Amino acid sequence: MLSHKLYPKFWICCFCLIFTGCIPALVRKEANRTVPQSYNTSVDTTNSQSVKWKDFFTDPNLNALIDTALGNNQGLNIVLQDIVIAKNDVRARKGQYLPFLGLGPSASVTKEGRYTRFGAVDDNIDIEPGRRIPDPLANYMIGATVSWEADIWRKLRNSRKSAMYRYLASTEGKNFMVTLLVADIANSYFELMSLDNQLEILRKNIDIQQNALSIVKLQKQAAKVTELAVRRFEAEVLKNQSRQYDILQEITMAENRINFLTGRFPRPVARNSQTFIDLVPKTIYAGIPSQLLQNRPDIRQAELELSAAKLNVKVTRANFYPSLLITAGAGYQAFSPKVLFQSPESIIYALGGQLIAPLINRNGITADYLSANARQVQSIYNYQRSILNAHIEVANQLSNINNLANSFDLKNQQVQTLTRSIDISTGLFNSARADYMEVLLTQRDALESRFDLIDIKKRQLNAMVDIYQALGGGWK
C-alpha cells in the first residue's frame, strides 16, 4: 500500500505518463561533421585566416575604405540592429520563468440582484444607518499579486537558451557579413585599379596608332599606299578612342560601387594604380579543412541555429505535458475607504495552484511540435551544406590561384613578344616589306594581350581576397 505522502507523486506520475504516450514519434537525424583530412597532399595547419584584415591588406587607401565601410555600411548596421533584437529576445525569454509581480489599487461598484446569493445575504453589521447592505455596494482594494509558472519540464529555460543561441548566431551572421564586405571592397578596389591601367594602355596605344596614321598619310601622298590603308588606320584610331569612354563609364560605376559600400555619396576614390601590374598576391596558407568549422562565421552561425532548433523541439514537446501555475496575492479590501487600511479586519490574502494539461483537440500543439522538428531537420541540412560549400570554395580558389599564376607567366611572355612585334611590323611596313594589315593586326593583338594580362592580374588579386574570405578571414 502507498503511504499518504506518496499519493500525490503517484498520481502526478500517472498523469504525465498518460500525456507522454500521446506525443507523436519523430524520425531522428544527426548532423554529419565529417570533412576530408586535407585539401591536397599538404597537412600544414598554418592558416591565413588568423591574420587580421589590416595586416592582410597593405594598401593604405584600401584599408581606409574598409575602415570607413565597417562604420558606415547600411547593410552592416541593419545586421547590428538584428543583434540588438536577438539580445532583447533573450531578455524577454529570461523573464518568462521568473515570477510576475503586480501592485496597484482597484475600485468598483456592484449592483446585486435581490434574489442572488449576495443580494439575499444577511448579517449583523450595519454598513449604513438602517441598512445592512447598501445597494449598490462599493469595493475598494489595494494589494500585490504574484503569478509563477513552475518550469517543471524546463520548457521556459530551454526557450531562453534557444533565444541565446539565436543571439549568438546573429553575432556570427554579423561576422560573416563583415568578411563579405571586406572582400567586396577589396575586389572592387582592385577592379578599379585594373580599369585605370586598361585606360592608360589604351591611350598609349591610341598615340601609337595616331603616329602610324600620320606615316600612312605621308606614304599615300608618296603613292606608296592607297586610300584604303589610310581609312583602315583611321578607323582603328576612332574605334579605340570610342572604347576609352566605355572604360571611363566602368571606372565611374566601380567608384560608385565602392562609395555605396562605404555609405557615402559619389566622390573620387583615392588609389595608386601605377603599381598595379607589379602587385604580387599574398601567400595563402589554407591549413586543414577541419579548421573551417571554427574559422568560418557562416558555419558557426549554422551550428548555433541548429542548437537553437533542437531546443525548440524540446520546448514544443513540453507543451504536451501538464503545466503548474502558482498564484498568490495579499493586500487590503473593504467596502469603504475609511476602513480600507484597518488591520486585521481588511487584510486579505490568497494562495492557489493550478495543474493544467491539454486533453483533447491538440492539433495546434502537435502541428507546432512537428514543425519544430522539420525546422530542426532543415537546420541540419543547412549546417552540412555550409560545411560542404566552405570546403568547395577553398578548394576552388586554391586551384584558381595555381592556374592563374601559370597563366600570368605565359601571358606576360606573349605581351613582351607582341610588343616587340609592333616595332618589327612597323619597320617592315615603312620599308615596304610588310602589308599595312599586318601592322594593324599586330597592334590589335598587342593591345588585347595587355588587356588580358591586366585582367589576369586582377583575377589573381581577387582570388587572393576570395580564398582569404573562404578561409573565414577578415572579420576580426
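(ticket continues) Second input and output from the same batch:
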Amino acid sequence: MSRALATGLLLCSGLARAQSPAELVQSIDVDEHLGAQVPLSLRFTDDTGRAVRLADYFADGKPVILALVYFNCPSLCGLVLHGEGEALGKLGGAVDYRTLTVSIDPKDRPEGAKVRKERLLTDLRRPTKPEEWPFLTGDEASIRALARTVGFRYVQDPRTGQFAHPAVLIVLTPSGRVARYLYGVEFPPLDVRFALTEAQQNRASMGPRLLLTCYRWDPATRRYGFYIAGFMKLGGVVILLSVAAMVAALHRRGRRRERG
C-alpha cells in the first residue's frame, strides 16, 4: 500500500466506515502516468470567478506543481497544501515554477476556493500574492478528465459527501506532461527542487544538473536518494577540473620564469 493511500485512508475515517478496507484499496490510489499529456483545453473557474483553461497556466514556460484536493476537506487536503507551502517557502528563488490547486468536488465554488486559499496563505505567513497560487473549481467532466490523465483515483461517500483520495503533488513540465509524483503531507524541499529541475528538462541550470547526477528517484521509497555512481561521475569531473587548473598554473609559472 502506498504512503499516499495509507494517509488518505487514515484521515478519511467517515468514508472508511462506509466501505471495507478492501473496497477502498480498489477505489483510491495513484496510477503513475509519467509522460502523460494533461489536456490543456480543459476549462475551469478560478477563485476570482474568472473562466480559465489549463493552458493559461502553461504559457510562460514554467513547470507546474498540481494539487488535487477539495475545499471542504476536514483534514487531509489542508495538510497537503500546508506541506506544499512550507516546502516552497524554503526553496526561495532557486527554481522558477507555478502552483495550481484544483478541486475534485464539482460542488465547490469560487467563493469557497477563495476562502480556503486566504486561510492557507494566512497560516503560512508567506508574502505570496493570491494571484500567484490559483485555486480552481470545475464541472464533473473536466475534473474527471484531469484526474484520469494523471492517474489520481478517488471516491466519494454518498452519505457524508467526503472524498477518500491520495495525498500527492504532481509535478508537470512546462508543456503539461507528468514529470514526477511527490507523496505524503510533508515534502522535503530537496525533493521538490529536484522534481522541478527534472520537469524543466533542458531549461535546468548547471547547478541542479550536477546535483541530479548524485541523486536519483527511488521508486520504492518514492524519494530522491544518494546515487553513488552519480557521485563518482561528479568526483571524476572535479578531479579533471582540478588537474586542468594545476596544469594551467604550472604553465603560467613556467612562462613567468622564462620572461625573468
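Agent notes: The CA atoms of residues 119 and 176 lie 28 Å apart. Confidence is low (pLDDT under 50) at residues 1-7, 9-14, 202-218, 222-231. Closing as not reproducible unless the customer responds.
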